[in-house]
Design brief:
This protein has about 190 residues and is mostly beta strands. The chain has helices at about 75-80, 90-95, and strands spanning about 5-15, 25-35, 35-40, 50-55, 55-60, 65-70, 105-110, 115-120, 130-135, 140-145, 150-160, 160-165, 170, 175-180, 180-190. The two termini are about 15 Å apart.
């Protein structure tokens, strides 16, 4: 309490990596209130496209019109942001909903740093798990199993953490992989708490 930001805004360059080696990019303007609320406006702004995450729900906006609301606990919001601004019990329940076994923990090295791995035994990369930097206590990696049969390995990395004026830290580089292949990179700039 009092040591972490409650609101955050940033400009996000969203780079989509295609199988043929080419990429495309978009600019997203993001505004967050911790816990549980994120608004994304997609450039060009006059098109009225975006996404809202609020209180466990997702709404896509196209041409200024809201689509259907669907339930979604956004794991990256929970682990990367909300964990610092909500009751522990809330976070525990949300993580259990992601099918992560909170009773299984071990330590590893990740990008030269000591981390806690929650949800998996040593060497097991085929179960849902998240990784936390031991020194800074920030989320750095998420492994999820997706697809109808749960055999697609989805990995998200929160990299290059930096301190934010007013308290807390943010990862200005987020990279997504599917079955070991990079699919998306997010680069944050103009970060304001």
């Amino acid at each position: 309490a009092g040591k972490w930001y409650k609101t955050l805004t940033f400009v996000q360059k969203t780079i989509t990596h295609k199988p043929d080696g080419t990429s495309t990019s978009e600019i997203w303007y993001e505004a967050m209130t911790v816990p549980g609320k994120l608004r994304i406006d997609i450039d060009p702004l006059d098109k009225g496209n975006g996404i809202l995450f609020a209180d466990g729900k997702l709404v896509s906006i196209r041409d200024g019109k809201a689509g259907p609301t669907r339930p979604l606990v956004h794991p990256l919001m929970v682990l990367g942001f909300d964990v610092y601004g909500q009751p522990v019990e809330t976070t525990i329940n949300q993580i259990k909903g992601l099918k992560i076994d909170l009773s299984t923990i071990h330590q590893e090295k990740w990008q030269g740093r000591d981390v806690y791995v929650v949800g998996a035994k040593q060497g097991d990369m085929n179960v849902p798990q998240f990784w936390v930097d031991k020194k800074d206590m920030v989320f750095v990696r998420l492994i999820e199993l997706k697809g109808k049969d749960g055999k697609i390995v989805s990995e998200t990395q929160f990299n290059k953490y930096e301190k934010v004026k007013g308290g807390g830290m943010v990862s200005p580089e987020v990279i997504f992989f599917v079955d070991g292949k990079k699919t998306t990179t997010e680069e944050y700039s103009d970060i304001q708490a």
